[in-house]
Amino acid sequence: MFVRRRAAVLAATAVIGTAFAPAALADESPSASPSPSTSPAAPATPAGLYGSTDPTYDGVWRQSLALLAQHTVGVRPAAKAVDWLTGQQCANGGFAAYRADPATKCDAKTQVDTNSTAAALQALTALDSDDAVTGAAVKWLKSAQNKDGGWGYLPGGASDTNSTSIVIGALEAADTDTRDLRSKDDRTPYDALRGLSVPCDEDGGGAFAFQPDKKGKLAANADATAAGVLGALGEGLVTKPEDDGKSSAKAPKAAECAGGDSPTPKQAAANGAEYLAGAVAGTGHLESALAGADDQPDYGNTADTVVALAAAGRTADAGKPLAWLEKNSGPWAAQSGPAAYAQLIFAAHATGTDPRDFGGADLVKQLGATGPASKASGSSDPSADAKDGKDGKDNSAEDSEDDGGVSVWWIVGVGLVGGIGIGFLLSGRNKKQQRP
Fold it and tell me: How many CB atoms lie within 10 A of CB 397?
């Protein structure tokens, strides 16, 4: 979901022959883009990995989302897909975006990051993976907590809303009490989120910023807000729909932003949900905030917004963006691949919508077509719900368009991609965060 598409953009640029180093991409200046002539050859896609594009920048992320989405809809992922993910873990418990040779030990040059680790932890916890695997990931994430209580993308990087929120969700999924997880300065993750919530009396009040700017000012950011709502609620990538028959009722909202410049986590979540509801009330979708992407819909963050609104109890407000996604997201998902299908499945699940009939599309089948064959949980037929996997024989024509990452046409059209749910990935990070 949330960290605004960093890995997505990097993976996409590799498709068209322009490789961006993470630190270079974080620099928003035009001079940060290296020459296409320096692009390395794309590595071969491992057999157990979902998607078919270069996994260098998003392999662990897209695999984690794919496995978690399949588990959410009752499909048991193929063993080799799970093994591929666990094989990516470093001895210290952390995960990098992708390791081409898992047999080679991680060293100081291996950039383990909080987002890949948190996504992998959520997926592997849901799949009941070995406690040694999930326990090591929990330990590593705890060790990467900043003094302010939050997390940056890389250990030691300044805390941001997206990274802090996805780590909260992962640790909660692994039965870690984040409410009392205190840093060396006695700060909790929720203290960090509160410090990233735009004060009520400022422009965009109630939303979350990704990070403060150089002057310490907070600017409202829809992507960060979708992440921050879930983080403040202690929720992960998967949220459950209401089951009391009242899910269609609009949650009561305060007449104004609550909590001033020091909201409680509950207030911060409600304030953020109010901001998101207003952001999608008109068109039903968010607009891409990336340079050169004027008037381009942001599909991934719209899906994240649906999940956040539903988690905050505002299912009715999630209805319009959900309907927009059902009508419009098909081509985007087909081009973007596993993570995009997973995001849509999470949005459907959060609102009680059937992901097998999402605007007429079977998201479960389409996701399955991007990876090794799986089967429905408890099914006696190993090929059930999975004959369309990339190891199977029945791939459908509509699924063959998947490229596992980001479409070339989208990059050509807007310069950079801002739409697939790679968490929660292009977060406008500064160079300092990209260094180990």
Answer: 6
What are the Cα distances from residue 414, in Å, to 194, 325, 409, 410?
33, 20, 9, 6
**Domains in the chain: ranges and CATH:** 6-33+75-434 (1.50.10)
Stretch 185-191: mean pLDDT: 97
At 261 the pLDDT is 85
C-alpha distances (whole Å) from 413 to each of 290, 292, 293 are 12, 8, 8
Across all residues in the chain, what is the average pLDDT? 80
Distance of CA 390 to the CA centre of its chain: 23
> DSSP secondary-structure letter at 205?
T
User: Any residues with CB less than 8 A from the CB of 357 and at least 6 apart, and which?
Assistant: none
Tell me the C-alpha distance between 20 and 38, whole Å: 10
Alpha carbon 230 to chain centroid, angstroms: 12
Helix (H, G, I), strand (E, B) or coil at 288: coil
How far is the CA of 275 from the CAs of 201, 208, 216, 286, 350, in angstroms?
A: 14, 9, 21, 12, 19
CA–CA separation, 115 and 166 (whole Å): 7
8-state DSSP, 89 = B
